[in-house]
Amino acid sequence: MAILKIARMGHPVLKRVADPVPDPTAPEIHNLINDMLDTLADIGGAGLAAPQVHVPLRVVIFHVPGARIATEEGTDPAATAGVPLTALINPEITPLSDQMAEGLEACLSVPGLGGRVPRHTRIRYRALAPDGSVIDREATGFHARVVQHECDHLDGILYPMRMRDLSSLGFVEELRRFQGQEAAD
After folding, report:
1. Each residue of 24-40: b (16+ CB within 10 Å) or e?
2. Which residues does the record give as Fe cation binding sites (predicted)?
3. DSSP, res 131
4. Bridge partners of 102?
């Protein structure tokens, strides 16, 4: 197992469409996923895509902490178990509604910065698991946001490319510090 180096915005591996994985059960794919898990555990964050660790393959890992789901508006407190660490191979996303919501996003490949990004509020995603079985889930809220963010990496898209208003782009530390405050003149 290894902690991998994170590709940063501007690196060519983040600009290209990642290649499909022909065999999700291949040992090299399992090794990649294990290294990605080690890397994510080391650096923190909700997810990681293979292109972010310089591997142009359609593989993402993510998790959604229950505490994060509990903060969402309208969430049933009993439904806050979260989503355990999940690996998706060759994922496909289908929006289940035209409804979009803006939310603050940050990215390991755009260190220190964050911005408000519109995302579909309800999606369905299908992918292969590392054992070759099919994962078919619906997601809402932060779960949907994380999956869309990580899968964007597979198509050469970083979150600033999705932003409608670049004035919301800033250093995460400052955005959190002044969250909800208007700038004084």
Report:
1. beeeebeebbebbbebb
2. 107, 149, 153
3. T
4. 118
Strands 134-140 and 122-128: antiparallel
Residue 120 is assigned to a ligand binding site: no
In the set 150, 173, 174, 182, the catalytic residue is 150
Residue boundaries of the structural domains of the chain:
12-178
The model's confidence at residue 61, banded by pLDDT at 50, 70 and 90, is: very high
63 annotated as a binding-site residue:
no
Using a cut of 0.85, tell me whether the model's pTM lies above it. Answer: yes
Class of domain 12-178: alpha beta
The alpha carbon torsion through 134, 136, 141, 145 (nearest 10 deg) reads 50
What pLDDT, on the 0 to 100 scale, is given for residue 183?
43
Taking 3-state DSSP, the helix, strand and coil percentages for the chain, each rounded to the nearest 5, stand at 30, 30, 35
Annotated active-site residue 150? The verdict is yes
Residue 104 CA to residue 116 CA, distance in Å, equals 4
The C-alpha atoms of residue 37 and residue 32 are separated, in whole angstroms, by 9
Confidence of residue 181 (pLDDT cuts 50, 70, 90): low
**What ranges in 44-101 are assigned the alpha helix state H?**
66-70
